[in-house]
Amino acid sequence: xxxxxxxxxxxxxxxxxxxxxxxxxxxxxxxxxxxxxxxxxxxxxxxxxxxxxxxxxxxxxxxxxxxxxxxxxxxxxxxxxxxxxxxxxxxxxxxxxxxxxxxxxxxxxxxxxxxxxxxxxxxxxxxxxxxxx
Length: 133
Fold this sequence. Notes:
This protein is mostly helical. The chain is 32% helix and 8% strand. The protein has helices spanning 2-14, 36-41, 50-58, 107-112, 115-123; strands spanning 16-20, 23-27.
């Protein structure tokens, strides 16, 4: 958690975006590369904490928020993960007759045959699964 909070502080103050042909990429320095005053300055001298992050958001000091989570975060809502045997998404794509399960997300395959992806997207559309707490 401490490492994450330091990264949040680094992102808030030090993210430098560069535009590439594929879109924007961010460069975030390692926490040890930042001075303590720089790391904690974002939190107005307070120690980094979830409460401090919430306060930054509530005060409008943080407007661009990125949450990085693994694919399993949605499993509790009934959305399948990718690789679990029997229940995983990749294990249940036989009806699409794909060369490999990953093909459903491959751009080259989509260009030749968009139907499997479009059908799968219909199955996973928002509204079919309830949010979790």
